[in-house]
Write a structure and sequence with these properties.
alpha+beta, 5-stranded antiparallel β-sheet, 3-stranded antiparallel β-sheet, 5 helices
Length: 176
Amino acid sequence: MGKQVIESERLSLHELSAEDSSDAAFIFRLLNEPSFLKNIGDRGVRSLEDARAYLLKGPVASYAANGFGLYRMQAKSNGVTVGTCGLVKRATLEDADLGYALLPEFCGMGYAIEAAAAVLAHGHGVLGLPRILAITNPDNTASIRVLEKLDFRFENMVQWPPDNIALKLFAHETPR
């Protein structure tokens, strides 16, 4: 199991590892869920080997380059992995952005808000990031509700490569 980075009341957030077969299996499942494909997009992960490559090129590389990345969300009560949440630094955005995704059976339980609030506190307080962004499909009303509950403010629509789709861009400033 990867290093624990953040903890909230019900969740612990851990670094993902390409060497951990349970992380690869989890990522394979999550990235192929219909809700992930619809709301976030197809990452081309079709096998456990693809999942390991995704982990190496994505979260693991981000930890090394940025000191943050996407983390595995684990329920403290039973150790079950429920989703991912963390910060991503994309070349196409000025600031780091918040990302989260849950396995369908854990949606509607408040995990996204709880994990995202903990990641925001870590990003602003520990990492010293004054501004954190979030992007979402305009049709993803559940994700928009999460962002609004966390005091993200809609800024504008952005065109997102490679498919040139329109996404909503939100921002969260360091609390004063």
